[in-house]
Amino acid sequence: MRETKCATGITVERRHPAVFRTGWKMLQSVVLMILVLTLPVQASEGTMGYEGGISVTDRMVKDTYRYREVVFVTGKPVVLDGTVVIKKSMKVGLETATYTYNLANVQQQATLTRVLLFDTAVDTKNNGQLTRSTTLARIPTEVLKIGSVTYTLSSATFTRSDLTDPKPSIGYHAGEFSGKKVYRVGTGADVPSVTVLSSGKVYAYDQYWSNTQTQKVKLQVSYAKKGEVKWGGTAEVNVSASSRQNMQYRENEPSQISFDGGYIRTTWDESVLSYSATFPEFDKGGIATDYMVTVSNRLELTTEPVNERLMVPDIRHLKGHWAEKAIHILYGLEVVPGSGEDFNPEKFLTRAEFVAQAVNVFKAVPPDPNVRATTTAKTTASKTGDTLPFVDLKEGDTYLAEIVDASDRQIVVGRGMAYFRPDEYITRAEVMTIAIRALGLGNLAAWPYAVSPFADNDKIPAFARNAVSVCAEIGVLEADADGRFRPNDFMTAGDAAELLYRLINYMGDDLVTDYREHTTQY
User: Fold this and answer.
1) pTM of the entire structure?
2) Rounded distance between C-alpha atoms, residue 45 and residue 162, angstroms
3) Closest CA to 55 of 306, 370, 501, 445
4) CA angle 427-430-435, nearest 5°?
């Protein structure tokens, strides 16, 4: 076995036939992984397509993505760049999606045009979960030209089945798909063919602060002439596409200016594709030999960063406070109302006050940006009188809209007997329960009750024990200097700001890391 790395970054590994034949018996397919994160944008599941490419948003053209894909029909990897346009329409129980690809590689004189039309049946289950079953609505059109050779798609099958679990602020997805493509090589009555078999898994989540999609696909490629397979190969491709954010503090350079330095939120898309393909070595005449060659490389797509200045609050009285950064950013993101001059980090928050901030963090899942908007006549009515979710709420109450929103999305359930108790102070245990209910991650706790890592675990109310355990597990909650959680203490404004800021970071960054490391193993 010999391994070399080219100046382009491509790594080539040449194997003796005996070595490959052993490996061929153990591996008959290619694993292809895709990861997408966008922030803060709309739903991501499906924006990569299911062809093994990576994409980033084209901010100038609606429904259009810059796209990159590697094809293996020649027995060698060919990188194609271009666009994919995604358009969807939704009727009751049926989604129709069209993916239109236009790709090229000038250096290798390659072009690809492809149109895929999918029908997806959507069924809502009794527990609120949705199942989706996808098939091709018609035979796709696809023509790939590489040099003087044309590969024309002659037949194709594709099926996909996935489950969506919509939680108050995040929609989680998992599914599988499989397909088969057969290409005619050249023109004429009796031409060679290339067959590509695929199967894969999908994991994704959608939410306001970020969204992530991962796919693991297995491929097997074979070339046949007059019904006889002449060569075959596999490849392993890891793909990561994400839209990231960070917040950096910028000092003002002039000293005589009306506001202190402030935070800038920067967002950008980035995609990474790495592959390892194993195919025969071809002689000068283009005939496959018994030697197998493994080629690997890494490719990237990025967008230009977009900067957004956040509001600069007046919190000079908090200079050096341990929660200063969190408070500053939450005001800038308009999670906390007001301008900051009267913020007291030691103030206890009422249930209404905390929920008003929480719904600005746990925002509803944005709609799919590629679905065509439909206009329907409908009437709306405000929730008044008997329609309010709690009997102790009335029109004109401060934060009424936020409480109703939180109730509608089941982020809050009240304190029993249909009462919300908006003016009562909220406890630390109640806050953690709201957070985990919004994230929809209660299933991470041990059944029936988890044991938290805190010294005062036994003092945590039964209704909150699982939520507290999960908050500690995902890293948004830490013990105090004595190792305690203090579940029945009232939540202060400073503690709430630090927690909500950690939750934003969790949803915007930590979830990405989890999907990337545990699914694609980057």
Assistant:
1) 0.88
2) 11
3) 370
4) 130
